[in-house]
Design a protein that fits this description.
By secondary structure, the chain is α/β, with parallel strands linked by helices. Helix content is about 45%, strand content about 10%. A seven-stranded mixed β-sheet has the order 1-7-6-5-2-3-4. α1 packs across α2, α3 packs antiparallel against α4 and α8 runs parallel beside α9.
Length: about 300
């Protein structure tokens, strides 16, 4: 099943509304009518920061590949602008989709592209070089998992489990790496047997498929689903299933506690019901989702 493309469904408000005394932005007209039973999380940028900085690996790699096929008068700067634009627009989908677009850009310039899987493997090798020290440090205990978690992640997960919710993780990163990095961060204990990721056959996995499986296997309707994500895919898929979606506009590099404005706008456009910069206010967030008063 191919992943859905971005379609703007929500409008960024001129005057944001927040839960009183918090940085939790409210876009929905009301909280969920029924308490969530199943909670789906994206991984990278939503829980994990191990892969923070991945764009600065992918973009230069793609520019270098495209440069030999540049059109007459097309500069490196122009190619970089094209690359960063489609990387941004495809963020949230499986990595292979960005590599498929790279292959398309090569063909548009008269070149012969490789199999997108080869570009994905090249990118992943470069990315693993960048994050090797992070992964090794976590595995050896030299680095605390808190250093590579979106702030408040553990408190949020504990609060959700305390409410009786089942936790799931679904990521566009390859499943083997999602499982390994979730273990390094101590997240696997919250979602035992419920961590999903990209497969070599990209049509064999999507977040939409995970959502459908949750609903079917548990014999619930989408209104009992809550999702957290920093990409448009999980937000759009959740809303399509009649679930409640929390956009996570995480500042991955700075961990400033302020929302990343590009992410915020993208998530609102995808239809997010709430937007948070991180989970520093996890307890207030969960309390409102379960039993809070609707805003006027």
């Amino acid at each position: 099943m191919a992943e859905r493309d971005f379609i703007a469904r929500g409008r960024v408000p001129e005057i944001p509304r927040y839960l009183p005394g918090t940085s939790i932005e409210v876009l929905a007209s009301s909280r969920p009518e029924k308490a969530p039973l199943h909670v789906l999380f994206d991984f990278d940028g939503t829980l994990s920061l191990i892969r923070e900085g991945w764009v600065e690996i992918m973009a230069p790699m793609m520019v270098g590949i495209l440069l030999p096929f540049a059109r007459k008068g097309e500069t490196a700067e122009a190619i970089e602008a094209v690359v960063r634009d489609f990387i941004a627009r495809l963020t949230g989908k499986q990595t292979i989709y960005q590599m498929m677009r790279l292959a398309e850009e090569i063909r548009l310039r008269g070149g012969q592209a490789r199999d997108p899987q080869q570009y994905k493997e090249l990118y992943h090798g470069l990315l693993m070089d960048r994050i090797a020290a992070r992964r090794d440090g976590l595995a050896a205990g030299r680095i605390s998992p808190e250093d590579y978690l979106v702030p408040g992640s553990i408190r949020l997960l504990e609060a959700l489990v305390g409410r009786g919710a089942a936790i799931y993780i679904a990521s566009g990163t390859d499943e083997a790496y999602v499982r390994e990095e979730a273990r390094l961060l101590g997240l696997d204990r919250f979602a035992p047997g419920k961590i999903y990721g990209a497969q070599r056959d990209h049509l064999a996995f999507s977040k939409e498929m995970v959502i459908a499986r949750i609903i079917e296997e548990n014999r619930v309707d989408g209104s009992r689903l809550l999702a957290f994500g920093d990409g448009y895919v999980e937000i759009a898929d959740t809303k399509a299933a009649d679930g409640f979606a929390v956009g996570v506009a995480s500042d991955e590099a700075g961990r400033s506690g302020l929302p990343d404005e590009w992410k915020r706008r993208r998530l609102i456009g995808a239809g997010a019901d709430l937007v948070v910069p991180d989970y520093a206010e996890a307890e207030k967030l969960v309390e409102w989702l379960w039993e809070g008063e609707n805003l006027a």
